[in-house]
Automatic annotation (TrEMBL):
Residues 22-163 form the DDH domain. This is Bifunctional oligoribonuclease/PAP phosphatase NrnA. It holds the Pfam family DHHA1. SUPFAM superfamilies: DHH phosphoesterases. Residues 246-314 form the DHHA1 domain. It comes from the Bacteria.
Amino acid sequence: MQTTYERELSQTRDFLTQHNHFLIVSHVQPDGDAVSSTLVVGWLLSCLGKKFVMVNEGPIPKRMRYLWRAEEILDLSVTPLDRKFDHVICVDCADFKRVGMTHEWFAEGAQLLNIDHHPTNDLYGTVNLVVPSAAATAEILFDLLTYMGLDLDESAATALYTGLLTDTGGFRYSNTSPKVMAAASKLLEYGVDGPGLSELLLEQMTLPQLRLLTRALNGLELTEDGKIGWVSVDDEDLKATGAVHEDMEGIVNYPRNIQGVEVGLLFKVINEQAVKVSMRSAGTVDVARVAQHFGGGGHVRAAGARIEGTLETIIPRVLEQVRLQL
Ligand code: AMP
Ligand code: MN
Ligand code: MN
């Protein structure tokens, strides 16, 4: 008998083989898994001889430009498309909102293939390949390529490894299952430069990035019981340090790393009316639930939400919701 996963894999294969022209999108402010998964789906479609366009609402992080055809992922904020698409593949997007402005290029009634690993995924696709137990969307794509009998090469392996490496925090988080390690081991056999990628993606910092971190940590606050720690960053911090948006990634781990802290928070001021909150849990609190309360989502230990309001009003509201889970 077919398992649910096998059924979803076969529906996914049919979606990919039965149509000819696809739009591939990932979530706003893409991370390593989002960018890699976009490229791996592109790689897969090239193997099938299909046409595709890879896009994101904004630019992809500079440090990911080493990935195969990364420069082909169009930044829709500067390069509009010349047509709409009837077949769209969304990777690493927990819900439809996460595709951002890319949805303007979905034709009316477009069919969506939703490939994702967030437990909060609401199955918005026409076809859904959603595996909450997977550490990364890249892990699901590894299974899909195996299922479809496609032999990897070094560029596809490097992209898959990048997704696994970044979403597991360098194979350290609790999502680092035996299956992840087995996949990583196979990928290394295709010539992936594991240590080089760790150095580039997890160790190296630019000087502005370090200055931004320093400045953010100067404003670190803790609740009286020491269980919640948070920092915030705004445009002024970026201007003062010369840092760019992607340099905010990783800052949230610092408040979380403090002994005794159960939940670390990073508040990124988007504009005067909106704040993006990143949440990290030491394990006791399910931050995906907190994020969902604010219309966001994620995983038990890593989640996020975009909240309308000013920083001053949002911080106490988020703290209150986290306290309810403690
Ligand atoms: P971040 O804090 O942006 O690194 O995100 C942590 C995790 O939560 C990632 O798996 C994100 O994909 C997910 N996430 C972040 N923001 C949202 C959101 N607004 N809605 C759903 N999931 C989110
Ligand atoms: Mn992601
Ligand atoms: Mn992911």
